[in-house]
Design brief:
Layout: H1 2-12, H2 14-20, H3 26-33, H4 38-48, E1 54-61, E2 64-74, H5 83-86, H6 90-109, H7 115-132, H8 136-139, H9 142-145, E3 148-150, H10 151-157, H11 163-169, E4 177-180, H12 183-194
Helix pairs in contact: 4-11, 6-7
Length: 195
């Protein structure tokens, strides 16, 4: 009970949070700013379990419920679905506009310059990722999403991820089989890593 109380109290201590400012984030921001290539980017993402351009986790294997399998799927967007990035529907445009403003505000609060331009780049990147996403009906079809691949298959599908180092950083080194739910989306995001 004491741990829960202490945790909650620290979360609610807004005076201490405001006094601390970005002090706690500065080492992480410095580490992110030092990234100069894909390998370093993937290492930082693995080390800090940051949101990634694809999702990766361990799930029950749909092909054999007695075992677990490392599952890899499309990801990398913040809004609820790909339609939010491209649709002209009023609620999608409103959500997209609000999200862009939020991203700009986060850059501003973090003291990172060119907040508006950076927010535009974040939205452009997420829009490009969303363009590769599978449509919802296709994502519900187990025959299409259950694709078991080897590590060699992953290296061929999207070599840009540097799978061995990334999986090792996540504690998943040595895995031989992977459930790749959306292969074309994974390959497309790998292509984005090239640029």
């Amino acid at each position: 009970g004491q741990k829960v109380y202490d945790f909650y109290s620290s979360y609610m201590d807004t005076d201490a949070i405001e006094a601390n400012g970005l002090k706690s984030l500065k080492p992480l921001l410095a580490e992110i700013n030092a990234v100069s290539n894909r390998r370093a980017l993937m290492a930082v993402m693995a080390k800090h379990e940051m949101p990634r351009p694809i999702t990766l986790g361990v799930l029950n294997d749909p092909g054999d419920a007695s075992r677990y399998i490392t599952a890899i799927a499309q990801g990398g967007i913040t809004l609820p679905s790909a339609e939010y990035y491209s649709s002209g529907a009023e609620n999608h445009v409103k959500a997209r506009t609000a999200y862009r403003a939020y991203v700009e505000q986060m850059f501003t609060l973090a003291g990172i310059g060119d907040a508006a331009k950076r927010a535009d780049r974040v939205i452009a990147l997420e829009t490009a990722i969303a363009a590769a996403h599978w449509e919802p009906a296709r994502m519900r079809d187990i025959r299409q999403i259950y694709n078991v691949m080897s590590i060699d298959d992953l290296r061929t599908l999207a070599p840009q991820f540097g799978w061995d180092g990334w999986l090792g950083g996540l504690g998943l080194a040595g895995q031989q089989k992977f459930w790749v739910a959306h292969p074309s989306a994974i390959a497309a995001v790998g292509g984005l890593l090239d640029t």
